[in-house]
Q: What sequence folds into this?
């Protein structure tokens, strides 16, 4: 996955470049994560930030919005298995606090903490 100059999410398959037709947000960084299998179905999904919402982009399907009320800073994001369940969560930077949060596939958001408190994010780097 990558974006072109228009910030449209694109991919390469068999040496050919294809456009998804979906433009990701790009104010602070580019709101695009690595493709992952995120749940029990075998399809690959890509976490993106669009209009400050965390969404999943999946080939041939409507985008699934995980944070319908915004809140995500436009930086790179990552789908990881943070809580150890069968599905992956998406880790992102909160736009108001610049701290790490994750959102479950059911839309529950949780601020990540260490024993020293919240985790501040470099907006330019985002999450990897």
A:
């Amino acid at each position: 996955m990558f974006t072109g100059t228009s910030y449209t999410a694109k991919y390469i398959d068999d040496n050919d470049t294809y456009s998804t037709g979906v433009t990701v947000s790009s104010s602070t960084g580019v709101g695009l994560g690595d493709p992952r299998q995120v749940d029990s179905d075998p399809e690959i999904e890509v976490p993106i930030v669009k209009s400050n919402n965390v969404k999943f982009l999946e080939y041939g399907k409507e985008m699934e919005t995980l944070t319908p009320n915004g809140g995500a800073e436009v930086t790179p994001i990552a789908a990881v298995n943070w809580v150890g369940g069968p599905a992956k969560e998406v880790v992102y930077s909160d736009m108001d606090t610049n701290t790490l949060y994750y959102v479950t596939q059911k839309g529950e958001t949780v601020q990540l903490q260490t024993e020293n408190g919240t985790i501040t994010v470099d907006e330019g780097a985002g999450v990897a």
About this structure: Residues 87 and 96 are 27 Å apart (CA to CA). The longest strand covers residues 16-23. The chain is about 0% helix and 40% strand. The chain has a mean pLDDT of 87.
